[in-house]
Specification:
CATH topology of the largest domain: TIM Barrel
CATH superfamily of the largest domain: Metal-dependent hydrolases
Shape: globular
CATH architecture of the largest domain: Alpha-Beta Barrel
Largest sheet: 8 strands, mixed
Structural class: alpha/beta
CATH class of the largest domain: Alpha Beta
Distance between the termini: 25 Å
Length: about 375
């Protein structure tokens, strides 16, 4: 049976259209029209959200796990649980993100993830792999184990790229480490997007990596050299370079709301990307959980290893709502940060972060404050929030 979805507004990657009707057949968008075009067929299944904004489902380019599972498990059970959970929170696509581990363990995970990426499964779709580590700064490594950090050598990267069957789409790299410039150029030539992060780089070192191909910054403010008025560092480069995309974890824990406003004014609706950095405990009760090979304590919304933050338990729908509250922006101004921008940065803009006839029917219904009302995944209702 065909399904009709109606709402007050449709935001489709750029503009707001009033009184939309989206027709879905076999999980695909069959048509998009207006309620003003005439009466709707009474035989179709109806999903009506009279006060809501319809928008594309979210795309998270930086997340490690959830629902009690870590993506580096690289098993069908872990991927199914994580994908199904993400769909209930409005996320339709994501990059499976690794964390620094022994090289053999990383290669095994990359191989397993590559196999899983090629299989059909319910829920949010993993589009590629984000390699966060091992080419990171010791000074700004966060919880990444120092004994497993590696120099950015092209042969090591090539082993990872081969194990991942070429499905690494994003890589975090510290600009200041010897060999980083060469690796950035090499990875970029293979279609990998390079994100500068976990770094103590000066502004000159950060600009050099950008010139070598870096297109984005990993969780801006976190695991970065602090801003100084005489040495702007990597953070000054990220905030002042208009062509760079920049990630942000908007949970109110990783970045103070005042600096969320600063980031918004610097990156705006065309270069900002909201992420979660979510780990195993996302969607789970407080307790002890795994992040890669590490044991992390989770309490009161904070995931930590000792005194250091270890990912988050954020979901993108909550991040979106937080961002609207912290900045005073409208939800339609903020929607590019979870749809259009991550798709553009990673090269998936054709079919992701938008709603077009012929696209997979992945969409959300939102209140004007950014709250999630409903998530539709592959044409089926994944959740109907209160």
């Amino acid at each position: 049976m065909r399904t009709l979805v109606t709402a007050a507004w449709l935001w489709d990657s750029d503009i707001l259209t009033p009184r939309p009707v989206i027709e879905i057949e076999d999980g695909v968008i069959a048509s998009i029209r207006s309620l003003a075009d005439g009466e709707l067929p009474s035989t179709y299944n109806r999903l009506d959200y009279p006060d809501a904004i319809l928008a594309p489902s979210f795309f998270d380019v930086h997340m490690h796990g959830g629902a009690g599972h870590d993506l580096m498990e690289a098993t069908p059970e872990a991927m199914s649980a994580i994908s199904s959970f993400l769909a209930t929170r409005g996320t339709g696509s994501f990059l499976a993100t690794t964390v620094t581990a022994p090289l053999d363990d990383t290669l095994k995970s990359l191989s397993g993830l590559a196999t899983l990426l090629g299989k059909q499964q319910p829920g949010a779709k993993p589009l590629g792999i984000h390699l966060e580590g091992p080419f990171l700064s010791h000074e700004k490594r966060g919880v990444h184990p120092p004994e497993h950090l590696l120099k950015p050598e092209i042969p090591v990267f090539d082993r990872m790229f081969e194990a991942a069957e070429g499905k690494i789409r994003l890589m975090t790299l510290a600009p200041e480490i010897p060999g980083a410039i060469e690796l950035a150029a090499h990875a970029t030539s293979k279609g990998v997007r390079v994100s500068m992060g976990h770094s103590n780089a000066t502004s000159a070192e950060a600009h050099a990596l950008h010139a070598a191909g870096a297109t984005s910054a990993t969780h801006t403010f976190n695991a970065m050299r602090a801003l100084d008025h005489r040495e702007p560092g990597i953070l000054g480069t990220v905030l002042s370079t208009d062509s760079l995309y920049a990630e942000l974890i908007c949970d109110g824990i990783h970045v103070h709301p005042m600096l969320v406003k600063v980031w918004w004014r610097a990156k705006g609706r065309d270069r900002g990307i909201l992420i979660t950095d979510a780990m195993t405990a996302t969607g789970m009760p407080d307790g002890e959980y795994r992040l890669g090979g590490m044991t992390v304590q989770v309490a009161n919304g904070r995931a930590s290893l000792g005194d250091v933050l270890a990912g988050s338990v954020l979901t993108l729908d909550r991040g979106l709502k937080n961002f609207v509250a912290f900045t005073g922006a409208t939800v339609e101004e903020v929607l590019p940060l979870v749809t259009r921008n991550p798709a553009a940065m990673t090269g998936f803009a054709d079919g992701v972060g938008r709603l077009r006839v012929g696209d997979t029917a992945n969409l959300v219904a939102l209140k004007t404050d950014g709250s999630l009302i409903a998530s539709i995944n592959h044409g089926k209702l994944a959740i109907a929030a209160g």
